[in-house]
Specification:
Rossmann fold, disordered N terminus, 434 Repressor (Amino-terminal Domain), Peripla_BP_I (chains A, B), alpha/beta, six-stranded parallel β-sheet, transcription (chains A, B), elongated, homodimer, DNA binding (chains A, B), four-stranded parallel β-sheet, DNA-binding, 12 helices
DNA sequence: CTGTTAGCGCTTTCAC
DNA sequence: GTGAAAGCGCTAACAG
């Protein structure tokens, strides 16, 4: 006589308790399948399962059925409101489709990003959503390309949020247009000397934003020599550092465009610490419109992206294995002018110098 | 002759390609196990795996080995900085231990919370971390208790962040003490009529915060009749609604304690809309110290909790299946007084009335 | 060191 | 309808 195993009850236990075959128990517990089990039996099985506190083993199910309902989500940092917003949308869609979400935080490490995609593949996820722009590195691009191709070959879907230089569905924020709108607006407000707090130019997103800004400003007749670009990490500290650099360098700029709101937050802190008044001494604009921006005083101008919608769309693209090629879905970027940007006249006093 | 399956390569494929047995291939690919495989063979196997773009099947592995390296994290809303902060800490620990994190967003639905725990159990996760206070509902408590007991019986660990009225490891924020500190500070600043923007009292966290506040204020000699408590949803809108109610009711309070920063955000917005100046007309205090609070103007007083550390600790407790009973780890709450709270004299003009 | 052999728990033909 | 049996891909004893 065998001693009862310690672990949780299995389907076999349930079947035995209900006096039916394994197959029948499985059918009763998975209504979706073939023709149903007789009501009487079904109830008996359900009761037995309940009594035994049966919890199906998702791994066994996945192995036997060759199906899973999990998705992977890769992001840099969940406390960054940008990614949190996207994650919320993506998770909402996954939830609606009954899919479990596995989240990988890369903290901006390409290796970790690759590692997560591999792990997700091992988990045989249905779909993976990659947020944050790609890394401009041939090794990375090739490796990631292979992973994704393999994933696809195995029947999985995936989508990017932001450019990735790799084939795949993309939710593409209007980085260029948004930044261009910022540039035009600043020039229209009379600004003739501009500064940009940029991120590492290895990030496609950064390049697009800076590019769009510079081109638009030039198109307005302001020479690119009047634009001072400082590249710092794509973080709050980076923004702080950029502001410091600009101020220390005695920049004559009257307006500062930060390529992300988080950077703007850091820059604003540095400005405040130096006694530089916004917008009187310097106009400031961010990008993304994270919730905090409108609450600051003065409220900060920025480019609004519907983060949640972007996350939703990306997850849908990744999950819907429809025919046809890869789709690129634009995510409109809308300039939101707030009190942090003001008009200057030609004689405006430049910011900078010692605080 | 069989046609090659379409799916991804299996271990058997790798073994065949390398001319070794299944077991050997498995050993070569899992260095952790028994004594190693001869270098020559190992390299051959590794190469074959690489050539075939072999991706281990985590489900098969879990099923055969009876081991997983996944953890579940339950939270209400990832865009809420409170949960994002905790999640970051929890995910960091999971990452260090090589565990994959599955995240469930409940949006404050007890049913969904239960559902996630069930799903995590089906996934045979090693540990689950439950954030957000428990729901004061007997049905919920019993059901959740059973799920967790079953999970534990199956060898899994779990931990709560905040009180849960259920046995288990707990990371316990100093809600009572923190709120008490707020109460004392306000009384010391001369406030004699206090208002509280509270959340649903079914949330343990809310009860502890309000309780701690009220008791401390009374202990300072201010009668509880001088404290006006308004319960609204535990959200930004709830904070807005609470402020509206207080103002419309012609509250004579000179200070407002919001049981969470997110509620404070809503309340502040309503106050600003009504022309109530902080802190001149009304002092405001929040709870949690989400990053935004110190950036507002005036910077908002609040009670600091080290969210990330809380998340880390919780994940560690859930993962470390050490002997002994359940542990309760306090998370210190530290009052942070900022410019949103000011001294009033006895003749202070009460806020309220039509804006 | 390496190969053989059982399963892990479940879904799924295929018969009845 | 329901049962029997064959795996899903892998790990883990056992033997050699």
């Amino acid at each position: 006589m065998r001693i009862r195993r310690d672990g949780p009850a299995t389907l076999a236990d349930v079947a035995r308790a209900a006096g039916v075959s394994l197959a029948t128990a499985s059918r009763a517990l998975n209504p979706g399948g073939q023709r149903a089990v007789r009501v009487e039996l079904r109830e008996r099985i359900l009761r037995a399962a309940d009594d035994l506190r049966y919890v199906p083993n998702a791994h066994a199910r996945a192995l036997a059925g060759g199906t899973t309902t999990t998705v992977g989500l890769v992001l840099h940092d969940i406390t960054d409101p940008y990614f949190a917003g996207i994650a919320r949308g993506a998770m909402a869609v996954a939830g609606d489709r009954g899919a479990l979400v596995m989240v990988g935080s890369t903290f901006r490490s390409p290796e970790r990003e690759l590692e997560f995609v591999r792990t997700f593949r091992a988990q045989r996820v249905d779909a993976v959503v990659l947020t944050g722009s790609g890394f401009e590195d041939d090794g990375y691009r090739e490796a990631m390309g292979e992973e994704l191709a393999g994933h696809r070959r195995a029947g999985g879907g995936y989508a990017f949020v932001s450019e990735h230089d790799l084939p795949g569905h993309v939710v593409l924020p209007g980085n260029g247009e948004g930044a261009a709108a910022v540039g035009r607006a600043l020039v229209e407000l009379g600004h003739r000397r501009l500064a940009v707090a940029g991120g590492p130019s290895s990030l496609t997103t950064v390049r697009h934003r800076i590019g769009g800004f510079v081109r638009a400003v030039e198109a307005c007749g302001v020479p690119s020599a009047a634009i001072e670009v400082v590249d710092r990490p794509f973080s709050e500290d980076g923004g702080r550092a950029a502001a410091r650099e600009l101020l220390d360098g005695g920049s004559g700029a009257t307006a500062l465009f930060c390529v992300s709101d988080v950077m703007a937050l850091g820059a604003l802190e540095e400005l405040a610490a130096r006694g530089v008044t916004v917008p009187d001494d310097l106009s400031v604009v961010g990008f993304n419109d994270i919730p905090t921006m409108r609450r600051l005083s003065p409220p900060v101008s920025t480019v609004r992206l519907d983060l949640e919608a972007m996350g939703r769309t990306a997850m849908e693209l990744a999950l819907d294995r429809d025919a046809g090629g890869f789709r690129t879905v634009p995510a409109p970027a809308e300039l939101v002018l707030r009190a942090s940007t003001a008009r200057v006249d030609a004689a405006a006093r430049p910011a900078g110098g010692r605080g």
